[in-house]
Amino acid sequence: MKARTLICTVALATACVSQTAFAQIAGVQPLGATVEQATGLLQGWSVRKALVDEPVYNDTNEKVGSIYDIIIAPDRKATYAILSVGGFLGMGKHYVAIPIDHFQIHDGNLYLAGATKDALKAVPEFQYNKLEKATKPKKIKPQ
């Protein structure tokens, strides 16, 4: 399935690159990715597919939570993972922010050394309403 998706994506990207794509207007940035960029993109990670809702284990292989969100800092780097800890059927979940560099990956699984459900529940809860909105670029007035 992945090979078929890759072939379709490369074929689509190649079909989109025509003679008109090379005619660029000075000062205008193209919206799409080049074939080389698309190939590199396909080798990257999708946060949604690879991390969100994935379980997190401690060093004794106990599930201690799951990835709920990833926070991107103003410098465009992933800095914190928001873990969902506890809860049942969506009720009573506790969200905590853990620095990305605290996680380890072994055999495709995420590990948080020394973590327990009780220790994570004792961490102050992450509150989305205190998270600042990313600043939007200022509008340019037409001349």
Which labels suit this protein?
143 residues, alpha+beta, 2 domains, six-stranded mixed β-sheet, disordered N terminus
Please render the helix and strand layout as text.
Blueprint lengths: L1 H15 L18 H8 L4 H4 L4 E3 L5 E10 L5 E8 L8 E6 L3 E4 L2 E4 L4 H6 L21
Parallel strand pairs: 1-6
Antiparallel strand pairs: 1-2, 2-3, 3-4, 5-6
Helix pairs in contact: 1-2
Short description:
This protein has 143 residues and is an alpha+beta fold. The chain has helices spanning 2-16, 35-42, 47-50, 117-122, and strands spanning 55-57, 63-72, 78-85, 94-99, 103-106, 109-112.
Description:
This protein has two domains: 29 residues; 84 residues, Roll (SH3 type barrels). The chain is of the alpha+beta class. The N terminus is likely disordered. A hairpin with a 2-residue loop joins strand 5 and strand 6. 23% of the residues lie in helices and 24% in strands. The chain starts with a helix and ends in a 21-residue tail after the last helix.
Number of strands: 6
CATH topology of the largest domain, anyone?
A: SH3 type barrels
CATH superfamily of the largest domain: PRC-barrel domain
Fraction in helix: 10-25%
